[in-house]
Specification:
- By secondary structure, this protein is of the alpha+beta class.
- It has a domain of 144 residues.
- It is built from 5 helices and 7 strands.
- A 7-stranded antiparallel sheet has the order 2-1-5-6-7-4-3.
- The longest helix is centred in the last third of the chain and has 18 residues.
- The termini are far apart.
């Protein structure tokens, strides 16, 4: 007889915030429920892109670049996350789910200390103030998908409140862009993490079962029979 204790606990997806210099974890945001669906878009960075504008064909230079890549593909993710205070005992009743929402919103906000420091430099007459660097953000979807990301969308739909108007249930639409070595400076911790993510894809691709040309309707002569080379 199977006991409930024997059932493995599901792995949760989440976001890990790292110090961009040291790589030390600063905060871990665990999604209360794993999203039911993930929308992923992968756009190759082809060297020959832009040659088909107007549908009039491509020049010789573009034809020479048709099979070349300028860099890693640009990948975006979108999903919906749910937060419900009634289903998690660790949520402090006086605040509802304010802390969880704030932790996510701070992923796209500078801190008050950073804003004050920038303001002080401006008062001192600094000619140029560098944009504020945010912590390095990782999105994790199990051990095989750990990648550096930048949040591009965070839309919150609060749907229930307690007597003090604290939100106790919300649906969040989250969009993110995978950061590649094309987006990060050389030597950045995020660039190393992206390379590890890409290496994981290579290992998974190598483990995929291949098929034979016969499954595609080709005879013993294979592709050569179609091209006239057989």
């Amino acid at each position: 007889m199977t006991r409930y204790a024997d059932i493995p606990r599901p792995i949760r997806s989440g976001i890990v915030v790292l110090d961009p210099g040291t790589g030390a974890p600063q905060r871990v945001v665990v999604l209360q429920f794993n999203p039911d669906t993930l929308e992923r878009s992968v756009s190759p960075q082809s060297a020959g892109d832009g040659g088909d504008a107007g549908g009039g064909g491509t020049g010789s230079g573009d034809r020479n670049e048709a099979l070349r890549l300028k860099g890693p593909a640009q990948e975006t993710w979108k999903f919906t996350a749910e937060i419900d205070a009634t289903d998690q005992l660790e949520v402090a009743a006086p605040d509802g789910i304010h802390p969880q929402l704030a932790a996510l919103e701070m992923l796209v906000q500078p801190t008050t200390a950073q804003l004050r420091a920038a303001s002080e430099l401006s008062k001192q007459g600094a000619i140029e103030i560098s944009p504020i660097e945010m912590p390095l953000t990782l999105f994790t979807w199990g051990s095989k998908r750990v990648m550096p990301v930048r949040l591009t969308e965070l839309s919150v739909n609060e749907s229930a409140f307690d007597v003090n108007l604290n939100p106790i249930r919300a649906s969040l639409s989250i969009g993110m862009k995978i950061l590649t070595i094309s987006d990060l400076p050389a030597g950045h911790k995020g660039a190393d993490l992206y390379m590890a993510h890409l290496a994981q894809k290579e290992r998974l691709a190598a483990s995929a079962r291949g098929g034979g040309l016969g499954r595609l309707g080709f005879g013993p002569a294979g592709i050569d029979a179609v091209t006239g080379r057989g």
